[in-house]
Amino acid sequence: MSTDIATMRLSDLDVEVIHKNIKNVHLSVHPPDGRVKVSAPVSMAPDTVRVFVISKLGWIKKQQTKLRLQEREAPREYIDREIHYVWGKRYLLKLDEEDVPPSVELKHGKMILSVRPGTNRERRQGILEAWYRNNLKQSIPMLIEKWQPRMSVSVQRFYVQRMKTKWGSCNFHSGSIRINTELAMKPLVCLEYVVVHEMTHLLEPTHNSRFIALMDQFMPKWRSYREELNRLPARYEDWDN
Hints:
alpha/beta; four-stranded mixed beta sheet; globular
C-alpha cells in the first residue's frame, strides 16, 4: 500500500496527513498530548483535506481537552499493596514468593501474585499481563457468540493485544477484530460495548450515520457505556517507547 506523509499547519494546530490507498478520510486525536492525524485517499487534494479538518476543529479541540483532563494511573511496580483492577473491581496486590510455577489468584479483595524468589519487575508484569490476556480470551468468545446472531455478522477471528490509543479495531476485509488487553481491568459491560462496536464495523467500516444507527439498534445504551469507559483512569504509558 503506497503512502505519502505530510504535516499541515492550521493556526496553532499541526496535523499529520497521510495519503494512502483508502476510500474514506479518517480523523483521529491521539494521547498523550492530542496529536491530530488524518488518513486521506491518495486522490484527495490538500485543499480538500484542509477544509475537512477546519470543519472538525470544534471536535478536535473537545477531544484534546478530554485527553488533557483524563486521569492516568501511576506507573506499576508490581509490589505489595499496589492497587490493581479486574473487571472494574479493586484489588490489593500481594506478592507471594515461592519456588513454584507463577500464578495469579483473586481472594478476599486481594490479587495474589505467586512468583519465584528474585523475580524482577518486568517478569512480574509479564506474568500478570498474560493472566489478563487469558481472561479476555476466555470472555470474548462468549460475547461474540451472543451477538453474532443478533447482528447477523460473523467474526472470523479475534486478537487480544496491548493498544496505546484504541480500545479495539476491526479489519473489515478479513472479518477480524482486535481488543485492547486493558479492557480486562474495566467493567465487563465496557468490554461488551467495545466488542459490539468492532463487530458493527463488519457491517459499516466508518463512523458515519449508518454506523450510529446500527449501534443504536443493537445496543441502545452504548453511549453511557462509552462514557463510563472513558471516565475511568487510563493506564500509564511510556510514550517515549
